[in-house]
Fold S-adenosylmethionine-dependent methyltransferase domain-containing protein.
Amino acid sequence: MIQVEPRQFVTGERGERNDEGLARAPSEPARLSEGGQMFANRLQKNLRQLGKWARRDKIECYRLYDADMPEYALAVDIYGDWVHVQEYAAPKSIDPAKAQARLFDALAAIPQTLGVAQERVVVKRRERQAGKKQYERQSSEGKFLEVGEGDVRLLVNLTDYLDTGLFLDHRPMRLRIQKEAAGKRFLNLFCYTATATVHAARGGARSTTSVDLSKTYLDWARRNLSLNGFSDKQRLVHGDVMEWLREDDGQYELIFIDPPTFSNSKRMEGVFDVQRDHVELLDLAMARLAPGGVLYFSNNFRKFELDESVQARYAVEEITGETLDPDFARNPKIHRAWRITVR
């Protein structure tokens, strides 16, 4: 994580909550720089627009700002009473000193504008990750925060990893899965912390099976399920997804696949590459789809192209536009998603 000096923040006690559900800023805030004030104005504008939507839909975690102004290349995410900030790596053409100054301007504005104590603003630098680096520990604080998404509770960790345990952009997909899960056998591949599985269980799935290569995330998944009172019929499988699919003989009416762009581990032979390997992955998964079932496939590789052979063999509908909530409308390329069924 990026080390930021306390003097870069506006300090003060948390006050009353404002109309957007966050605390009011201190009554006598420190003076911001011109750039910091511009950034604060944008945060306030976004908060007015997104706050009402988030409250109406019982959403505690959402993206407030996503590099809306190019000179402030940050993602600012709300997690209840906490703020998670990711600084996108500046191009080499940008003077590092200037980039750092802008970062500090933004970080001074965030607590003041959102009324959040500096200790509740977590800052990270996000760079292009290779292999499993994005899943490696950034810290070891081990602190989990309980948050709400609709009618489920989930655990996030804002400090220990680059990602928090909850992919905010997949919120509409999780809610869709909950609506469609009643009475169905649900399969979640590359399940991560199994947040989609929690939604499926809440929606009345007959059973769930979640597969991931990481014991750490499966333990997290178990805690997410337990937090919502689900433990009996929820199967968690530690293993390589491709290998597991080749050996599994189950049938599932609802399948969700959200693979990483690349993945490797000591348990895998070679490296999983979503562009190269998605045809085999989808063929293996479709072989497990029960009659009348639906498979949802999504990934966030921006250059991804679905192979024509997949579209020739199955009924494929791209539903990306239906899987973007207002907080990601400014970044429609955050992921792509498809609904796939047997012809």
Observations:
- Helices lie at 34-56, 96-114, 171-180, 195-202, 215-227, 241-247, 274-286, 308-313.
